[in-house]
Amino acid sequence: MATVAVQSFVSAPLQVPKVTQFKIGICQLKVTTEKSANIFNARSMIQAAAEQGASLILLPEMWNCPYSTDLFAKFAEDFSDIDSAPSLLMLSEVASSLGVTIIGGSIPEKDAGQLYNSCPVFGPNGELKAKHRKIHLFDMGKPLPGEVQFKESDNISAGEKPTVVDTDCGRIGIGICHDIRFPELAMSYSARGAHLVCYPGAFNMSTGATLWELEQRTRQDDSVSCSCE
């Protein structure tokens, strides 16, 4: 399904908006089991980034909950009802109050009985401009001795569509973590005129340290656009 979506996505050209220089703020959070504490910490870091001049601010993958498949349902929010979704409501309010664009990392999304790993994008007016559902779920194979086994697809459904969004900071393509391993996604964003591709991630320590920087550099080479995680 993802391959079909990418092919049809590339075929439709868009007029590329102009882009000027801007500062990016990347927030690295220590996530706890208390959702309210995670929201408070994220708000504080977004505010700190804006105070330092950032106009585009990024959060990490699954910033409002521990990265544990058995907890995703408990922390999930409905993107169609932001007023009842505390994580999304905070992002909307702080984007509007600070006049910044926020790539909201990702949180668990609940929709029609399914869970998704989804990245919201809020504009400086507080509007939800886009939502990307992680296309390539991370399922570890048989772990090495002493390592943790993880299978995201046990609880999460895969997204089916690439996401590109025009913002005050330019045209941005969105991927989430494991999406970075698949060059077709980045190449499709480049074909659509993306100035920047953002991959909020929460890589594990077993493979992340070895692969993450290499994959960032590789996506820059094959997409001819900037990559940010």
Briefly, what is this?
The protein has 229 residues and is an alpha/beta fold. The protein has a single domain, classed as Nitrilase/N-carbamoyl-D-aminoacid amidohydrolase.
Describe this structure in words.
There is one protein chain. The chain starts with a helix and ends with a strand. The chain is of the alpha/beta class and 229 residues long. The relative contact order is 0.15. It contains six helices and ten strands, in the order H-E-H-E-H-H-E-E-E-E-E-E-H-E-H-E. The strands form two sheets. Strands 1, 2, 3, 4, 5 and 6 form a six-stranded mixed beta sheet that branches. The longest helix is centred in the N-terminal third of the chain and has 17 residues. Helix 2 runs parallel beside helix 4. The protein has a single domain, classed as Nitrilase/N-carbamoyl-D-aminoacid amidohydrolase (4-Layer Sandwich). This is Carbon-nitrogen hydrolase family protein. InterPro entries: C-N_Hydrolase (IPR003010), C-N_Hydrolase_sf (IPR036526). One of its GO terms (molecular function) is hydrolase activity, acting on carbon-nitrogen (but not peptide) bonds. It comes from Solanum tuberosum (Potato).
